[in-house]
C-alpha cells in the first residue's frame, strides 16, 4: 500500500494503524504527536487500510463532501493542503468549526453537495474529491462535483448501499451507483469496505476527459 507523506503506520499499544500528526478530535488513540486514523470511524481510512491506491499526496488540494463533525476531514487536513469541507447539517458543522479552528488549512462550508453552484465561487480546482455523503443519489453528487476536480485528479467515494435503498441487494445498488459515476468518470477500482464498514463500497475514479 502506498501512503502519502504525512500518513504513516504507527503502533498504538497493541494496535498498529495508519496515523497522522495533529490535534486529536474524536477520542482516537494518540502517541506523542501521532493520532490514530481509525478505519472503523473513517471510510477513507478504511480505503487506505485495505490498500486501495488513492493518489493522495501531501501537497494536494481537497474537496470533502459530507464532512460531518470532521472526523476524516481532520486527518485529510493534517497531511494535505487546503481542504474544503462541505456539510449541510448545522449540528455537526458546529463541531467541524472547532476542528477547523485548530487547522488553518481546513475550510468548512455549510452547503448542500447537490448544489455545487452555491460554493463554486469559493472552491478552487482540487486534486482530490472525497465523498462520504450517505444520501440518496450518491452517483449524482459525484458527477455534479466533477467540475471542481483537476483533469489529473482523483475521486475517492464511499458508497453506502442502504442510503440508496434499504431493501435492495447492496451489490445491485453498487452497480447502479458505479454506473452513474461512470457518466463523468473512469472508475479504476472498487472494493468492499468490510470489515470496517458493512455494505459500503470504496470507489476510486478519474475524471473523464
Ligand atoms: C456518514 S456521514 C460522514 C462522516 C464523515 N465523512 C467522516 O468520516 O467523518 C455523512 C454526512 O453527509 C452529510 N450529507 C448528506 N447529504 C448531504 C448533502 N447533500 N450535502 C452535504 N452534506 C450531506 C450528512 O449530514 C452526514 O453528516
From TrEMBL:
GO terms for molecular function: histone H2AQ104 methyltransferase activity; RNA binding; rRNA methyltransferase activity. S-adenosyl-L-methionine binds at residues 71-72, 87-88, 112-113, 132-135. It is an enzyme of class 2 (transferase). SUPFAM superfamilies: S-adenosyl-L-methionine-dependent methyltransferases. The keyword Coiled coil does not apply. Keywords: Methyltransferase, RNA-binding, rRNA processing, Transferase, tRNA processing. It comes from the Archaea. GO terms for biological process: box C/D sno(s)RNA 3'-end processing; tRNA processing. InterPro entries: Fibrillarin (IPR000692), Fibrillarin_CS (IPR020813), SAM-dependent_MTases_sf (IPR029063). Interacts with nop5. Component of box C/D small ribonucleoprotein (sRNP) particles that contain rpl7ae, FlpA and nop5, plus a guide RNA. Involved in pre-rRNA and tRNA processing. Utilizes the methyl donor S-adenosyl-L-methionine to catalyze the site-specific 2'-hydroxyl methylation of ribose moieties in rRNA and tRNA. Site specificity is provided by a guide RNA that base pairs with the substrate. Methylation occurs at a characteristic distance from the sequence involved in base pairing with the guide RNA. NCBIfam families: PRK04266.1-2 (NF003276), PRK04266.1-4 (NF003278). PANTHER family: FIBRILLARIN (PTHR10335:SF17), RRNA 2-O-METHYLTRANSFERASE FIBRILLARIN (PTHR10335). This is Fibrillarin-like rRNA/tRNA 2'-O-methyltransferase. It comes from Haloarcula rubra. The gene is flpA.
